[in-house]
Design brief:
- There is one protein chain.
- Helix 1 crosses helix 3 and helix 2 packs parallel to helix 5.
- The protein is elongated.
- By secondary structure, the chain is mostly helical.
- The chain has helices at 16-29, 36-48, 52-80, 86-89, 97-134.
- It has one domain.
- Helix content is 70%, strand content 0%.
- It has five helices and no strands.
C-alpha cells in the first residue's frame, strides 16, 4: 500500500485545469501590465500549490489559455494591416512583400507564444514557492 501524500498541505482541492483557466483569464485581464503571463501563471501555481513541478505544468497550461486570445488578436491585426495575404485578395499587389510580412508576423506570433507560455510556467513555479512560504508554520 502506497501513501498518496506525506502532508495534507500539498493536496489541491481544485482541478489543475480549473486553476490553469483561472490563471489564464487573470493573465489576459492583466495584459496591460508588463510581464502579465508571469502573474497569470503565478496565480495558477498559487492556487494549485503542491509540488513545484505541478506549478510549472499548471503555469504552462495557463500560458496556453492566455495564448488563445493573444493569437486571435495578433492574426486579426495581421489581416487588418494586410500582413496575412488579405491585401493580395483586395488587389493591393506589392510583389513578394506581403509574403515576407506574413512570415515576419508568424515569427512574431511564435516568439510571443514562447514568451507567454515560458513566463507563465515560471510564474506557476514561483506561485507554488510563494504558497509554501506563506503557509509555512515557521518552525523551519
Amino acid at each position: 500500500m502506497v501513501p498518496q501524500s506525506t502532508s495534507s498541505k500539498s493536496d489541491s482541492n481544485r482541478s489543475p485545469v480549473l486553476n490553469a483557466v483561472i490563471g489564464g483569464i487573470a493573465g489576459v485581464v492583466l495584459s496591460f501590465v508588463p510581464l502579465s503571463p508571469l502573474l497569470g501563471g503565478g496565480i495558477a501555481g498559487y492556487l494549485q500549490h503542491g509540488a513545484r513541478e505541478n506549478g510549472l505544468k499548471v503555469g504552462a497550461w495557463a500560458g496556453l489559455v492566455m495564448l488563445v486570445p493573444f493569437i486571435f488578436i495578433g492574426v486579426l491585426l495581421m489581416m487588418l494591416l494586410g500582413l496575412g495575404g488579405i491585401s493580395a485578395t483586395y488587389g493591393l499587389h506589392m510583389g513578394s512583400t506581403p509574403i515576407a510580412f506574413a512570415f515576419l508576423g508568424l515569427f512574431l506570433i511564435g516568439l510571443s507564444a514562447i514568451y507567454t507560455v515560458g513566463l507563465s510556467a515560471l510564474g506557476g513555479y514561483l506561485g507554488v514557492f510563494v504558497w509554501e512560504e506563506v503557509n509555512t508554520d515557521g518552525s523551519g
